[in-house]
Amino acid sequence: MTCFFMLHSCLLVLLLLLLSVPPAHSQEYSVNGKSVPLNVYEAAQLVNESVTFLKKQDFGRAQSRLKSALLLDPTMAVAHSNLGLLLARQGKTREAIEHLKKATQLPDSPNLAFVNLACCYQSSGNLAAAIDVYKRLIRRQASLDEPAARHSRDVLAVLEREMERQDKLGSSAEKAKLADNYLADAGGRNFVRWADSRFPLKVFIEPVEGELDGFDSNYNTILKKAFYDWAQKTQQKVKFQFVDSPERCDIHCFWTNDDEKLGDGTEAGETELRFFGHAIAHVEMALRAKELPGDFPYTENAVTTTCRHEIGHALGVLGHSASAADAMYFTIPLADESRAISSRDVATILALYRKPLDFNSLCLDFLLSSENWRKFGLFIPLLLLLLLLLIYARKGKKKTKLKKKKAVSS
Ligand SMILES: [Zn+2]
Q1: 84, 220, 232, 334: least buried by Cβ within 10 Å?
Q2: Cβ-contact 115, 137 below 8 angstroms
Q3: Residue 178, CA distances (Å) to 175, 222, 317, 325, 403 in order
Q4: 239: CA distance to ligand 1 center in Å?
């Protein structure tokens, strides 16, 4: 079982400050365990108030609290970071960059300010600046084994590959042009895909039984629509059929808030692929039902983006796109908007499905498919035995050829 990259919702986390209320007789104030002057304490209180308003999508009041906090303490990194995120959420990228840049220059800057700044740079087409921010972030992340640090390095590698590719293109007009597809970042030679005979893929969406915090019945409609979107965009090259039973389904989708099923608990969705050789055999897709504590509330846009993204993985996109305009970009947009399936996403899937599956993968896929077991029953073990003999015979042939070559050269 293999787990691949996931969509990261952690980017939207709003930062709170821990305040300790001073006793009536004392003039001691503390923020995050540190003794601070009154103006910093009051600024921290305003930041916390702004988080409450942000969660309610009351951007006006949140913004005024954050601006007041910065008047009291212009060096409060968290206030700059949250204000930058708030502005980005409203699509005000240029203003957002100013505040996030300021946040990353301050000594107590949160790591998320770096991630959000890089995201803003990318969405405004400044790849070099985004790379620079990620390099700074990696340098400050204490342990390189941390999942967050590992993820930062993966992201940096994708960005650098895209930058390198653009550098090779020469003129600035050419540089600005993205490749038609991002297959190299989405699996490359180690590609996996469904065998053509498996389409339409059978999709089972597990019904939610009982209470699932945050789940809205509309989510299943959004999920189904996301499958239809992929089918329609690829002109039915990939297509799906919804089934009522998990038995013999190809893609099993379920909503959950279980952190264990959602990576390290910071993911909006996680898609696991099982495959034989290059042929995908089965997919398990976990989708988060409720936003993480501190995140903006899930909107239909966020759910739509997550579903489209995870389906891309389910189709065989193992990595991510380096362009924020693609559904397979590695983060959800900071602005509250759904990310469409782009022409590059479509071109990547079409390129992937033009790659032929090798003989062994096709045979294994045929023999181990539960659907074929149902159809052909006992013939399957015989065919399996035949295939193993064939593979063995091929290996034997190769060895003999090698021996002959050695004999000639000696
Ligand atoms: Zn992903």
Answers
A1: 232
A2: yes
A3: 7, 29, 18, 11, 48
A4: 20
Whole-number Å distance, alpha carbon 152 to ligand 1 midpoint, is 14
**How far, in Å, is the centroid of ligand 1 from the Cα of 260?**
17
What percent of the chain has pLDDT above 90?
41
Q: How far apart are CA 27 and CA 199, in angstroms?
A: 70
**Could you tell me if residue 26 is inside a domain?**
no
* Cα-to-centroid distance, 215 and ligand 1 (Å): 21
CA of 289 to the centre of ligand 1 (A): 17
Question: pTM higher than 0.70, yes or no?
Answer: yes
* Domain end marker among 342, 357, 372: 357
State the pLDDT at residue 3: 34
In a domain, 128, yes or no: yes
- Torsion, Cα 167 169 171 176, to 10 degrees, reads -80
330 C-alpha to ligand 1 centroid (Å): 5
Q: How far is the CA of 219 from the centre of ligand 1 (A)?
A: 19
Q: Is residue 15 part of a domain?
A: no
Strand 240-243 versus strand 201-205 pairing type: parallel
Residues spanned by the domain of 353:
184-357
CA distances from 388 to 34, 152, 281, 384 (A): 68, 43, 19, 6
How many whole angstroms from 406 Cα to the centroid of ligand 1?
47
Q: Is residue 2 part of a domain?
A: no
Choice between 406 and 33, residue whose per-residue pLDDT is larger: 33
Tally of domains within the chain: 3
What distance in angstroms lies between residue 309's CA and the mean position of ligand 1's atoms? 6
Shared domain for 204 and 347, answered yes or no, is: yes
**Shared-domain flag, residues 131 and 211:** no
Q: Look up the CATH number of the domain holding residue 309.
A: 3.40.390.10
pLDDT in tens, 69-120: 999 999 999 999 999 989 988 889 999 999 999 999 998 888 889 988 998 8
122 and 254 in one domain? no
CA of 72 to the centre of ligand 1 (A): 40
pLDDT in tens, 217-266: 899 999 999 999 999 999 999 999 999 999 889 999 999 998 888 866 66
